[in-house]
Every structure is written in structure tokens, then in C-alpha cells.
Design goal:
globular; alpha+beta; six-stranded mixed beta sheet; Nuclear Transport Factor 2, Chain: A; SnoaL-like; 4 helices; 27% helix
């Protein structure tokens, strides 16, 4: 039986992982210019039901969201991809640690469901759907939202 890695080219697999590496690095450094360069021009971002389309609108929403934090640290964990030529789908699980400007520490467990497009040999996000699994106290004492 073929494994997923055998189905996907190693080059595409590494490029998709590097896309997420660039994305999380930009979040961790609060670098909007680098962050938005991970998205296709006509991309769409679904942030817990709030859907915005186009790089300008996506960047504007991200900047508003990030302005609430003293810092945010994103740490991706497991992922899964299915590549079909110049398009792909996949998902990532994340650990996120933030501190609000009021000093509140928050731990977030989440998942991104993605579609990707390869433009000029470079993988970019076409769509991202952000889903919360947990958002609360660092001791994980809050409510967990089951995902499908």
C-alpha cells in the first residue's frame, strides 16, 4: 500500500511544510508583510466563521487580531497533505500561546484546514479555515470543542 509521502512528491511535501514554517515565523515575529506573502492574491480566510477574501482584507483582519496581544507564539504540530498537480489540500494542528495586552495568558489548541495553490513554482494558501479546539487557561482546565 502506498503511503501518503509516496503519493506526494517529496519536493511538494517539503515546500508545503516550509510554507507553514514561514507563516508561523511571521506570526511569532508579528511581521505582517512576511505573513501575507504566504497567501495567494485572491485567497480566502475563514476565521471562526468570519470570512474575508483578498490579501488586503486578510492582512487587515490579521493586524486587528494581533493588536490584541502583547505576544503570540504559534507552534505547529502534526499535518497531512494531499497534492494534486498545482493544487493541494491539507490540515495542521497547532499549539498557540498568547498574552493579552491586559496580561492574561491564554493557551489555544487549533486546527487549520487548508487548500493550497502552486503559482510560479511557489506554494501559497488559497483558503484557510481556522477551528478552535481549546481556548482558555494554560492548565487546560477549560472546555474542549470536539472536531470532526
Amino acid at each position: 500500500m502506498e503511503t501518503l509521502l509516496e503519493q506526494n512528491s517529496l519536493e511538494d511535501e517539503i515546500a508545503l511544510r516550509n510554507l507553514m514554517a514561514r507563516y508561523t515565523d511571521a506570526v511569532n515575529r508579528n511581521d505582517g508583510a512576511s505573513w501575507i506573502n504566504c497567501w495567494a492574491d485572491n485567497a480566502s480566510w475563514d476565521l471562526m466563521g468570519l470570512i474575508v477574501t483578498g490579501q488586503d482584507n486578510i492582512l487587515n483582519l490579521w493586524q486587528r487580531m494581533m493588536s490584541n496581544f502583547e505576544f503570540a507564539l504559534l507552534m505547529p504540530s502534526s499535518c497531512h497533505f494531499e497534492v494534486n498537480g498545482n493544487s493541494a489540500t491539507g490540515h495542521w494542528y497547532l499549539h498557540e500561546y498568547t498574552r493579552s495586552k491586559e496580561g492574561d495568558a491564554i493557551t489555544i489548541l487549533s486546527r487549520y484546514q487548508d487548500s493550497y495553490i502552486k503559482e510560479n513554482g511557489k506554494w501559497l494558501y488559497q483558503t484557510r479555515k481556522y477551528e478552535l479546539i481549546y481556548n482558555g487557561a494554560p492548565d487546560l482546565s477549560g472546555q474542549v470543542v470536539p472536531i470532526n
